[in-house]
Prior knowledge:
Chain A is mainly alpha-helical and 320 residues long. Chain A has two domains: 3-51 and 249-319, no CATH class; 56-243, no CATH class. Chain A has helices at residues 3-11, 23-34, 37-48, 55-76, 99-109, 114-130, 134-138, 141-158, 171-186, 196-206, 211-224, 229-234, 236-245, 264-268, 299-303, 316-319; strands at residues 82-85, 88-91, 94-97, 250-255, 287-289, 309-313. In chain A, helix 4 (55-76) packs across helix 10, helix 5 packs parallel to helix 9 (171-186) and helix 10 (196-206) crosses helix 11 (211-224). Chain A is globular. Chain A starts with a helix and ends with a helix. Classes of the chains: A mainly alpha (320), B alpha+beta (252). At the A-B interface, strand 1, strand 2, helix 5, helix 6 and helix 9 of A face helix 1, helix 3 and helix 4 of B.
Amino acid sequence: MGAIDSLKAMLGAEPRRTIGVTQDAVAIHEAKRQVKGAQRAKEIKALHSGNKSHKWRNIRWTTLIVINLLFVVSFRLDIQLVEGALTASRVVGFHFADLNSSLQVMLAYKHILINLVIGTVTVLLLWLLFGGRSFCSWTCPYHLLAELAEMLHLWLAERKLVLNYPLHRGTRTVLYVIFVLLALVSGYTVYESISPTGILSRALIYGPGLALVWVGGLLVYEVFFIRRMWCRYICPIGLTYGFVGAISPVRVQYELTNCLHEGDCRKVCLVPHVLECTKKSYAEDVKVAIGPDCTRCGACVDACPTGSLKFDIKGLNKLL
Amino acid sequence: MSEPHPQPQAKPVFTQKTRREIMRSVALGGAVVGASLFGFFPVLKKWMPRLRPPGAIDENEFLAACIKCGQCVQVCPVEAIRLGDLDEGFGVGVPYINARDQACDFSCDAVQCVLACPTEALAHDIDKKEQVRMGLARLDKPNLCLARQGKGLKGPARGRGFKGLHRIESIDRWKPVKMAKYDYDIELCDLCLRECPIDKAITLEPMSDDPSDKRRTPVVHQACTGCGMCEMICPTEPAAIVIDIRRRWGDV
C-alpha cells in the first residue's frame, strides 16, 4: 500500500491490495504457489514446535511501567524528575505536552500558549523519533490494562462464553472530528473528561477517584463485548499519534521470503489491517514497511514463527 | 448438520456484516459522545463551585485552558491543591482548593503553582501574593465568632485531629507545621487576622464606644485575596468566616 492508502486505511477504509508488485515479489509469490499443501503444513508444524517468545512484550511492559512509575515516584518522593501527568509534564525542567491534550486545550481556549507549543513540539519530535503510536503501546497506562482485558476476553471467547462484536474502523475518525468540533464549539476540553489515559495517569500519581469507575466500565465492556474497543475504535489520542507515525522512521518491517502466511501476526495485532500485506500473495514487495496505525508493540514480531516481522529503522541500514 | 443453503445472491454476507458494524458503531459512538457530554451538567448547573488556585482565570476559560496535569498540585508546599473528580464534569482533573481543610497560606511566597502551570490557566501575570484574587472573605456566622463574644483561645486552633498545615514563621521560615501541634494561648481570638498572609486584608474593629468592651468584630478589606487562610484557621465549627468564591470587591 502506498502512503496515502495506508493513511486512508488508518482512517477506516478497507486496506487496498496494491496492483503493481515488484518482479522479485512476483517471483517469490509464484515460488510459494508451487509448494504443495501437505509439505507446507509440515513446514508450519515444524516451525511451531519452537516455544513462543514474549521478548518484546516484556521489554515493552517494563518500559511502560517504568515510565508511569517515574511520574509517581517523582511526585511521591519529590525528586522532580518527571513532574505532572501524561497530559502535560516537565521532564527535568523541559515542557512536555500530550499532542491530543494540547489540541483540545488550544481548540477550547483559542489562545496560542507558548509553553504549550514548546511542550507539544518536544513531544511531537520525541514520538516522531520513536514511532508515533508507540505512545499507545509503550506509554499509555490504559493500553496495558486493555491488554490484560483482551487476554481475559480471548480466554472467555475460546470457551465460547463471550463473543466479539467489532465496530467499523471508521468510528474513530468520526469521533475524532466530533471531539475536535465539541472542543471548538463548546469551549471545554470535552474529550479530556472521559479520556482513560488522563484519568489513569492522574489516578496513579495523585490517587484514585470516582473517575476510575468509568475506566473500569470500559474494561468490562471490552472483556464481554468488544475486543480492544477503546484503542481500536474510539481513542482520538491513537489517531493523533498515528499521523505522527506516518512519517516516523521506527516501524515494523515485513519480509516476504520466509513467511508461511499463517496469520499468527494478525491474530495478536491490535490493528490487523496494517498486516494485510502478510496475507498470501498480497505483499507488493519483498520488504514492506507496516503502516502508520501500527503501535509498534512488537506482538507480531514475537508471534511470527519465521522471523518475517522485525523492528526496523528507516535509513539506518544505509547509514551503517 | 444440514446442507448449507446455496446463497441466492452474490455476497450479501459482506454487506450485512458491514451494516451491522456501522449500526453498532453509531450506537456505541453515540454513547461515548453522550457520556462525554454529561460533563456539561455539573459545569452549567454549577453543582460544585470550587475555589481555584491563585491566578486562576475566568471559570469557563479556566476549565478550557487547564490541561489537567496537576503540576500545580506537585509544587504546593502545604498540599492545598486537589484535582476534580468525575462528578465535576469538565472539571475532571482541574485543580481546586478546599480552604476549610487546607487553605493556601502563600507559604511558597512566589506563587509556585502559577509558575508551574504550563498553559497559563493560572495567569502568569501574577508574581506576588498580593495580586491574587481568588474570592473574598466574609463573616458568614457572626454569632459564632469568638472575637465578637470577647472570647479567647487555648490550644490548637482546629483540634488535635486536624490534618491541615500552616507556615508559622516564628517556628520555621520554610517548613509548614501541622496546625494540630501548635498551641495558641490568646485572650481574645484574632486568628483570622493573626494568620492572614496579606497585610491589611482583615482588621478587628471595636463593637462599641465603651473602652472596657473587649468584643471585636473582624472586618474584611479590599486587600483580601480570598486565599482562605482565615476560613481554615477559624476555630468555630462551622467556620464563622468563609470565602465567597470568585467574588470581587464591589460585587454584591
